[in-house]
Write a structure and sequence with these properties.
Largest sheet: 8 strands, mixed
CATH superfamily: (Glycosyl)asparaginase
Structural class: alpha+beta
Bound molecules: aspartic acid
Number of helices: 9
Order of helices and strands: HEEEHHEEHEHHEEEEHHHEEEE
CATH architecture: 4-Layer Sandwich
Radius of gyration: 19 Å
Number of domains: 1
Helix content: 25-40%
Shape: globular
Strand order of the largest sheet: 6-5-4-8-7-3-13-14
C-alpha cells in the first residue's frame, strides 16, 4: 500500500529511550542513538480476511472509541455469525459433539481475562472481559466459566448449528474417533487495535480445533500464546495449531522480538521459524502470526501459503497476503 504516504501523513512521533534497561523499565533495549516511533493514528488488524469484524473495530476507533471496546466489539461480529464454523455460535464441536469456546482479551495496562472450554454461551470474548474486570482472576474454565457468565447475565443457548452437527455426524462415520491435525480448518480470529490515544488492546476467540478431544484447550485463550499486548512495544496474535503456539509462547515471543528492535514482519518470521525448527521436518500443520508495533507498522507470516490478514488504517482497508515458510 500507500505505506510510505501513510507514514508521512500519520503524525508519527518519536520518543527517546533509555540507553540501557533498568529494573524498573521494560522499554526496548535500543542503542542510545535509536528511538521508538509512535503514532496516534488508529489501526486495526485481524487474522484472516474477517472484513466485517475489522470494519466493526475500525468503526469504534473512528468514532473516538478505545482499543479495548474496538477489539471486543470487532470479534463479537464473528462470534455471532452462525456461518462462521470456527468461532462462537456455529463453531465445529469437539469429537463428542459439544461446542466448547476459548477466548482471551488484554488491554493497555496488561489487564487480561480468559475463558477456556466455555459451553452454551455465544460471546466468550465478552465473558473474558468480565473475568478481567470483575474477578481477581485471569482465567475461568468449563462449568465455572459458564456459571460466572450466567451470573453476569449471559443467556444460555445451543451453539451447535444443524450444519455443524451434520458435518460432525459425517466425520464420526469415517474418522475412527481421531482428531484431525491438518493445515486447513484453523480460522481463529485474533484482532489487534491501536487507538487514537496510541494505546493497544487485543482479543482472540475460537471454537478451537474441530473434533478435538473433550477438554482440549489450544493457544487462543492463553495470554502470551494466542495473544499478547505490551503497550510500550506492540501486540501479536496467532491462529493455527494451538499446541505448537503454546510450546513457543508465540505471541509473547513476537512482542519480545519487537522489543529487541525487530519490525513486526521480522518478528513474525522469526516466531514461525522457531516453530518450524522445533518440528524437524513435520509439515502437516499451519500457524499464522500477525503483529503491530507502536508506530502502527504491521506484519504477518505463516508456515504454509494461504494465510492473510485484514488491515484498517486511515489510508483505507485491505486484505494483506502473507508470505509463508514453505512454498
Ligand atoms: N488456534 C486454535 C486452536 O488451536 C485453532 C485455530 O486457529 O483455528 O484452538
Amino acid at each position: 500500500m500507500q505505506r510510505r504516504n501513510f507514514l508521512k501523513k500519520s503524525g508519527l512521533t518519536t520518543v527517546g529511550v533509555l540507553a540501557a534497561p533498568s529494573l524498573t523499565s521494560c522499554k526496548p533495549e535500543h542503542k542510545e542513538d535509536t528511538a521508538i516511533q509512535t503514532t496516534k493514528q488508529p489501526t486495526v488488524i485481524c487474522t484472516w480476511n474477517f472484513s466485517n469484524a475489522s470494519a466493526k473495530a475500525w468503526e469504534v476507533l473512528e468514532a473516538g472509541g478505545n482499543a479495548l471496546d474496538a477489539v471486543e466489539q470487532g470479534v463479537m461480529v464473528e462470534e455471532n455469525d452462525v456461518n462462521n464454523q470456527t468461532v462462537g455460535v456455529g463453531g465445529r464441536p469437539d469429537r463428542d459433539g459439544k461446542v466448547t469456546l476459548d477466548a482471551c482479551i488484554m488491554d493497555k495496562d496488561a489487564n487480561c481475562g480468559a475463558v477456556l472450554a466455555l459451553q452454551n454461551i455465544a460471546n466468550p470474548i465478552a465473558v473474558a472481559r468480565k473475568v478481567m474486570e470483575k474477578t481477581p482472576h485471569v482465567m475461568l474454565a468449563g462449568k465455572g466459566a459458564e456459571q460466572f457468565a450466567i451470573e453476569e447475565g449471559f443467556k444460555k443457548m445451543n451453539l451447535l448449528t444443524e450444519k455443524s452437527k451434520q458435518e460432525w455426524l459425517k466425520w464420526k462415520k469415517t474418522s475412527n474417533y481421531e482428531t484431525p491435525i491438518n493445515i486447513e480448518n484453523h480460522d481463529t480470529i485474533g484482532l489487534l487495535a491501536l487507538d487514537g490515544n496510541g494505546d493497544f488492546a487485543g482479543a482472540c476467540t475460537t471454537s478451537g480445533m474441530a473434533y478435538k478431544m473433550a477438554g482440549r484447550v489450544g493457544d487462543s485463550p492463553i495470554i502470551g500464546a494466542g495473544l499478547f499486548v505490551d503497550n510500550e512495544i506492540g501486540a501479536a496474535t496467532a491462529t493455527g495449531v494451538g499446541e505448537e503456539v503454546v510450546r513457543t509462547v508465540g505471541s509473547f515471543l513476537i512482542v519480545e522480538l519487537m522489543r529487541q528492535g525487530k519490525s513486526p514482519q521480522e518478528a513474525c518470521e522469526e516466531g514461525v521459524k522457531r516453530i518450524v525448527a522445533k518440528n524437524k521436518g513435520r509439515k502437516d500443520f499451519q500457524i499464522g502470526f500477525i503483529a503491530m508495533n507502536k508506530a502502527g507498522e504491521t506484519g504477518g507470516y505463516c508456515v504454509h501459503p494461504g494465510f492473510t490478514y485484514r488491515k484498517f488504517d486511515p489510508s483505507g482497508h485491505e486484505n494483506v497476503p502473507v508470505e509463508s515458510f514453505y512454498s
